[in-house]
Amino acid sequence: MKFAHMADIHLGATSEPRLRELEMETFRKAFEECLEEDVDFVVIAGDLFHVNIPDLSVVKEATKVMMRFVETGRRIYVVYGSHDFSPNATSMVDILEEAGVIVRVGKPSTVNGMLRPEVVVDRRSGAILTGISGRKLSLEKESFKHLDREYLASFKGFKIFLFHSALDDVRKSGERFEGIASTDLPEGFDYYAGGHLHRRIEYLREKKIVYPGPLFTGWGIDLENTVKGERRGFYIVEDGAPRFLDMTAFEGVYEEVDATGLSAFTLNERLRALASRMDVRGKVVVMRVFGELSSGKTSEVEFASLREEIMKRGAIYLHLNRSQLRSREFEGQAVVSDDVQKIEEETFREFSKSRKFEEGRLNTEAVALSKSLLQQLKVPKMDGETEGDYEARVRDAAIDVLGIKDLLRG
Which residue in 30, 32, 231, 299 has the fewest CB atoms around it within 10 Å? Predict the structure, then answer.
């Protein structure tokens, strides 16, 4: 038996045209590799798309890729991730399953108060697949508490469990996430196909737990880590043994510029000199500019000219991280981090500390609700969608996140 394990593909995550091309090209090459390797099936452990209803042009191209694979008589098995799951609306995952492109495993049912995720048998290989989908705010953790483990143990054969949750056992120092323990996963499976953690992990102890990390990274700290040398791809699993296939789509250049004690004028000179000597042709450039200027404002730093020069020299893309650059005149709460999502979370946390909310739950849930609400506000307008329909969709999603639908009805 031979299958492919992908996760955290996040199609549609980047709006930069060249990176979007590379994202889809990587997705296409991954499935071509699957056919070349003659795998029996593919599993995707969550976050096939970056949002539950992505840009339809992205969906169109992705569907072409997956259909070429499915038309050979093979299947693609998925679970929801925290990004492409929606508790109150249809997800593109549901639409693609209805169209016969993918198969979602682990659909939940309850018997005698216990959770029984649907079990699927792959017709080509005989593999037994089930799992638990990811949910926003890591709410899937509750599902593991009510899992009917005896029911799952009753199935005999090569068994694969898909899940989209972080694993406490592999938490690094400084990492902050809501995760599960390896003991929360049901016993007796031959392979545990993980998703959600954006790094490659082979936790091969009592249970064979594997995370491939993202297939492609075109945004945030993941892009930075790729440029620094972290490899991206997916696993081919043959007779239970995982083998990583490197699909890294680009090489990169990473530069840090400490502006501490420099004037805005001097920093501009330093950035121009740096751009003139960097070898950027055919590469993605990530530049982190940080520190406190001795004089001048951050708005006086000519980042637009820097971007123009680097792109003129043949770079694929320039990602500028200037979240830690500040001028001496600025007063306020600085959140120090390279991770956009962490910056957002820390900003919400600092704000919530300075407020006492009348509604009691907000004193404990303000950060989580704010993050979930911001995610909904980032959902792009779909092709052909009117402004009114778009606003209504975002408004309804925000109302559901806040849990005030009944209040508004009253």
Answer: 299
Q: What are the residue numbers of the active site?
A: 83
Token pair listed for 338: 């390279």
CA dist 295 and 190 (Å) reads 61
Q: What is the largest CA-CA distance in the chain?
A: 71
Eight-state DSSP code of residue 152: H
For 68, residues 6+ apart whose C-beta sits below 8 A from its C-beta are 31
C-alpha span between 234 and 237 (Å, rounded): 10
- Residue 317's SS3 state is strand
Whether 322 contacts 338, CB under 8 Å? no
Give CA–CA dist 74/185, Å, rounded: 27
Contact 143, 134 (CB under 8 A): no
Q: How confident is the model at residue 336, as a pLDDT?
A: 56
Paired tokens of 333: 């709460």
In sequence order, what are the beta bridge partners of 285? 253, 318
Go through the domains of the chain in sequence order and give each one's CATH number. 2-246 (3.60.21.10), 252-327 (no CATH), 348-402 (no CATH)
Distance (Å, whole) CA 107 – CA 115: 10
Q: Which two tokens stand for residue 86?
A: 């929606």
Q: What is the sign of the dihedral through the CA atoms of 93, 95, 100 and 103?
A: positive
Nearest one of 181, 178, 213 to 371, comparing CA atoms = 178
Which amino acid is present at 145? K
CA-based nearest residue to 276, from 305, 307, 309, 304: 309
| 3-class state of residue 224 by DSSP | helix
In 240-336, DSSP assigns E strands to: 241-246, 252-258, 284-293, 317-321, 325-327
Encode 79-119 in three state secondary structure: CCCCCCCCCCCCCHHHHHHHCCCCEECCCEEEECCEEEECC
The whole-number mean pLDDT for each consecutive block of 10 residues of the chain, a chain of 410 residues, reads 97 92 97 98 96 93 98 98 82 95 96 96 98 81 93 97 95 84 96 96 94 92 93 97 97 96 96 95 96 94 96 96 84 56 73 62 74 77 69 78 66
